[in-house]
From TrEMBL:
Residues 8-134 form the SnoaL-like domain. Residues 128-151 are annotated as: Disordered. Coiled coil: none annotated. SUPFAM superfamilies: NTF2-like. It comes from the Bacteria. InterPro entries: NTF2-like_dom_sf, SnoaL-like. This is 3-dehydroquinate dehydratase. Signal peptide: none annotated.
């Protein structure tokens, strides 16, 4: 991997760690200052830094626990722009039970595309697009897929 690709992969990892830690300041530092966009699974396109960061503030405030296990990570760098595709294997949990125990955990799969731009301050997110994986990709001869996954 090239030095640029290594830097992009580090920025991509930092993005997911910021979500896991629920740190909005950390998240804010990862995004470009100008026009950005974001599509969360099932959401409309969000445009502009304020709208995108507001969405992460809502997600972080309403998610008791979340952890990402990234697979199929591919990094491509072309000049000052980089593209990362990956599968987000997500484990998330609801609010704690009345007795203080951990709430129910739910797993899901999302395929994501993250677009970064090189800046003097390092690689910054320009766009994030996540799409839920609805089928396992193993179809029968008729093209019908098997089990579904919630993403």
């Amino acid at each position: 991997m090239t030095e640029a690709a290594d830097g992009v992969e580090l920025a991509n990892t930092e993005f997911y760690e910021a979500i896991e830690s629920g740190d909005l300041d950390r998240m804010s530092a990862l995004w470009l200052d100008d026009e950005v966009s974001c599509v969360h699974p099932g959401w409309p396109v969000l445009r502009g830094r304020a709208e995108v960061l507001r969405s992460y503030a809502l997600i972080m405030a309403n998610t008791e626990y979340i952890q990402f296990f990234l697979t199929d990570v591919e990094v491509a760098v072309l000049g000052e722009t980089a593209l990362v595709t990956c599968t987000e294997n997500i484990l998330s949990g609801g609010p704690a039970e009345e007795d203080g125990s951990t709430g129910p955990l739910v797993g899901g799969l999302v395929v994501a595309t993250n677009v970064f731009r090189r800046t003097p301050g390092g690689w910054k997110l320009w766009s994030h697009h996540g799409s839920p994986v609805m089928a396992d990709g193993e179809g029968d001869e008729d093209g019908e897929s098997g089990d579904t996954a919630v993403g």
